[in-house]
Design brief:
This protein is α+β, with helices and mostly antiparallel strands. It has a domain of 140 residues: D-amino Acid Aminotransferase, Chain A, domain 1. Helix content is 26%, strand content 31%. Strands 8, 9, 10, 11, 12, 13 and 14 form a seven-stranded antiparallel beta sheet that branches. Strands 1-2-3-7-6 form a five-stranded antiparallel beta sheet, covered by helices on one side. The chain has a two-stranded antiparallel sheet with strand order 4-5. It is globular.
Length: 262
């Protein structure tokens, strides 16, 4: 599929004009960044894995009624998506205290939270993506009204509930993750839909048995085996198989978990 002109290039992806009005092509790069782009590198194959993992998760979310920007995956690195106006807020969902939360508040690393915590971050690299309150979002009209903000919050919790079950079933703890949303028009109706990606770049994922990290913290903290960790996530989700030519690293045997049906 032919790409149009480049619309946007971020730290991990490039967005091009799509073949039809209201669509775009999202290309996953191998670039790895951390600490607000202060640490940079290239991890060969990361974009391919993130494309496949994000496609898998977004397809599942679409199937349970959570609308996302994903139309379909085009190839190993690209997806056809709905073109959206991104809301300039990152919605961070936390189940276990780690990272910046522990540093800011002195909470012990690994503390399991009594219920999911949603934090908001203003998307602005020059300002360091500062934490903001609900009142900031509404005052500056980054989301047009409280009804829309409540809809996004409820969607974040639904996504968290689904993903916790999905990852728990393959022996992975969903520690925290960030989400982005955008506004688009589908069938003549303006809608808020999930955008960006969900992958080990945007989630913290710990092995249930060993608590070894299977996410971008391996890059942030110089733990090594970055591509192998991402591949392990894909393997457990059934996206790639053991015969892949990327070597695997033993992160512990997935623990059997009984999930009750509601």
């Amino acid at each position: 599929m032919n790409k149009g002109k480049k619309l946007y290039e971020g730290k991990a992806k490039i967005v091009y004009e799509g073949p039809e009005k209201g669509t775009a092509i999202q290309h996953f790069k191998d670039d790895a960044t951390a600490f607000n782009n202060q640490k940079k590198s290239t991890v060969e194959g990361k974009g391919v894995l993130n494309n496949r993992i994000s496609e898998h998760i977004l397809n599942n979310l679409n199937q349970i009624g959570i609308k996302t920007h994903l139309i379909r995956r085009l190839n190993m690195r690209e997806q056809l998506i709905y073109l959206v106006n991104i809301i300039p807020v990152e919605f961070i969902v936390r189940n276990i205290a780690t990272g910046s939360l522990t540093k800011r508040l002195g909470i012990a690393d690994g503390t399991v939270l009594s219920k999911p915590l949603i934090e908001y971050s203003y998307k602005n690299d020059e300002l360091g993506d500062p934490l903001i309150a609900r009142e900031h979002i509404l005052e500056f009209k980054w989301v047009k009204n409280i009804k829309s903000l409540n809809f996004i919050n409820d969607t974040c919790l639904r996504i968290n509930d689904f993903m916790q079950g999905m990852f728990r079933g393959v022996g992975i703890k969903l520690v925290d993750f960030k989400l982005e949303f955008g506004i688009t028009t589908i069938d003549g109706k303006e809608q808020i839909i999930l955008a960006d990606e969900i992958s080990p770049d945007t989630c913290r994922l710990w092995d249930v048995v060993s608590e070894k990290k299977l996410d971008k913290d391996r890059f942030r903290k110089d733990l090594g085996n970055i591509i192998q960790a991402y591949q392990e996530v894909a393997r457990r989700l059934g996206i790639i198989h053991e015969e892949s030519n990327i070597s695997t690293v033993k992160f512990g045997k997935p623990k059997a978990v009984n999930i009750k049906k509601k």
